[in-house]
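Run: sequence + MRU -> complex structure.
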Amino acid sequence: MENIAFTPGRDGVAIIDQTLLPGEERTVTLTNREDMYGAIYSLMVRGAPAIGIFAAYCLSALANQAEADEFEGLYARLRADAGYLNASRPTAVNLSWALNRMLGIAERNSRRSISEIRDLLYRESLAIRDEDISMCRAISEHGLSLLRDGDAILTHCNAGPLATSKYGTALGPILLGAERGMKFKVYADETRPLLQGARLTCYELEKAGVDAVLICDNMAGMVMKNGWIRACLVGCDRVALNGDTANKIGTSALAVNARYYGVPFYVLGPTSTIDPGCRSGGDIPIELRDPDEIKTLFFAKTIAPDGVKCYNPAFDVTDHSLITAIVTQKGICYPPYEENLPALMENQGA
Ligand code: MRU
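>> structure
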């Protein structure tokens, strides 16, 4: 089953509702832009690469619905829809990256007929997905070269197949190794407050037959101190040019612990997650979410005083000095990131 797919008429997008996993595998279809925005905001579809692919599919579906008989009308509609969808979540750069790529296709083909432009947009959205599949595959190969059979790995949030199109990034090497008969033990942080680790990572690992151990986020330091962890593998939502990396809240504390206990800390993601517009982590916008996610969600009743103030940032930035290497589809990038990341991005290969 594909995570993200067009409806048969290509005027809507079908996704697996990730908020219901692991209890229920339900596919929902989104046909208007408000529901598409809501699907991203509510994390029905989530994970930086998956958000980008979904947004590209949505823009193609909306272009197929748009009432326009000349380019200017269609393009104005597309720009408005892209701007609207782009406002759904601020941190993962893959969202604006994919939407801008779609707008660029329309812009460069302004002399073509409306039906040709619609077709090109459809093809571009599929290209974004296909490239993601091959990038995740290459990331998985590079990541696997850092691991040995029998290793125990710590991961945070969910950077598996559900967060991409296939394979995943941080879970990719583990799933690829498992396919080849290697045995890993994965300690999965539950990932408060939305529990992507408990709900999604454990679900994916269980499906793949990988030995998974669920821990609360505040237990990660202890398992590292015990000497049980060979490497930390995490995904990323936006990487600045100096290597500072935004990922799910709690990642940065994990990296501090990993440094203290001498555990290698690897960030895995496609080069589309590197933002040339961000010189350092201070330039990365951090999403703030509804306080009720901390106080109420997943609990039978509210677990904190009703009126308590909450601070609920969805991401944090890990300082580049704590990252052992950044694994992309183009290879493994080591410090100094300020020099090596731009060089990696310029490399046209892979
Ligand atoms: O809020 P989420 O669930 O979208 O956060 C996801 C993460 O932080 C992932 O680690 C990141 O997007 C990489 S997914 C390959």
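>> summary
The pocket of MRU is lined by residues 43, 46-49, 92, 157, 159, 163-164, 169, 196, 235-237, 247-248, 314 (CB under 6 Å). The longest helix spans residues 114-144.
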